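Final report, closing paragraph on structural work. Over the funding period we assembled a curated collection of sequence-structure pairs, and we close with a single example.
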Amino acid sequence: MGVDNEKRYSIISENKIAEIFQHLPESYAVLEVFKRTDKRIDARFVAVNEKYCKEIRKKPEELLGYTVLNLFKNYKESQVWVNYAWQSINAGKRIYDHVFSKEVGCWFDLEVKPASIENYCIHSCNAVCAENGANEIFRNNSTTEDAIIRITKLISTDMEYESIMPKVLEEIGDVITPNHIYIWEVKNDRVSVKFEWYKNGEESRKEEFQGMDYVKYFRNWENYLINDRIVQINDIENIKEIESEGYEILKRCGVHNFMCAPFFDHNKNLIGFLSVENYGLNEVLDTRRLLDTISYYIAFRTVNNYLIKRLEYFSSTDEMTGLKNRRVFGELLELLAKKKRCYGIIYIDINRFKSVNDRYGHSVGNEVLQEAAIRLKKASQYSVFRIGGDEFAILVDERIGIAEYQDIITNIHYVFSYDILDNDKYKIAVSVSAGYARAPEDSEVPDILREIADNRMYTCKKKMHEEMDKE
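Its predicted structure, as stored:
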């Protein structure tokens, strides 16, 4: 059908329309694209024909002179229409897409092309058959809702966090068809991919996306979240000017579009993102619904995992030095006794550490303990533990000879042979005493080994004190 029989409604002259269009589509609107005073891009309806009005279910007087951003209630949808108009004019090419309009309640075959006059474009849309569209939406909704139920059940299982999340991404990949799906982790203004899924034929990008600067690459995403829960970029060309550094990375990785849902902890602090890239534009609604819903459950599980890890850390780690604590030492010693016949322990104690605390205060004493832990780790290849106070232990998990134990103890004395703290405020030197015990030579019973090593350490300590008193 030609356009001659269609009624035209315009706020510009027929001559102007004739100048702009040589071949008008069956359904068309003339949009003038401009930059608003708030620097956002917008588009104004300056001409429409009757069929276009019928397609989007608006009267001419509801369109002419109005802008897209002001006309449509759904901000995200209006942004898509404006972005396509802006991209078409800047790139000087036609843009085709299949989009769903919440305003109208149906799918559209969309075409946007630049006009012959600067900053004008032709916007054409044809509604998909309502019945077919409704059936398609119903099918997609059913599939997506089923997937959401499956995934939430999976997240709620007792499986380990590290095992569940890859399966969650795999489930999402079965419903929609992006190239990559990521769970990002945000820590100390650094963003890294924690989990990744990618379809057959694609390559992992996990290593490339590690330790990225949040402020540099992700801070602008907060602007998208002012009016939406999802960051949705259907064409990365739309962010080329405003996010140039992020755009270059995406372009290099072959990303055409991406969508991500942030998730937060109980205090509303950002802890990560669930994101997809290169999704089908006909899957926008399913992708949004999946990400929006699943991100809440991922946040819940992520926070719980973090809390569990923190509890495990504090129950097994000495907060002062970062070494494993007395409990872990005892558990590992018992485990070694069951699995190995040959192993050993070395006990270390800082000589007259109390005098350091009395003279310089506990805060300086804490610095001494921290430095002592660092030096003990340098003295041998074996694990070091803080047993309590100024006492430490080394667990030797293999058979070595007496000479090698003596070499380790010599190394320990050497790393304490120079000042442990040396700064403008104070200069402090300490010495240590050490004693070892071996299984099975000294005993096969862990508690007896500990007692033997402790006694030998205190024998050494007594001699050291006697020598120090003579000085």
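The first strand starts at residue 8 and ends at 10. The chain has three domains: 8-128, 132-312, 326-470. We thank the funder for supporting this effort.
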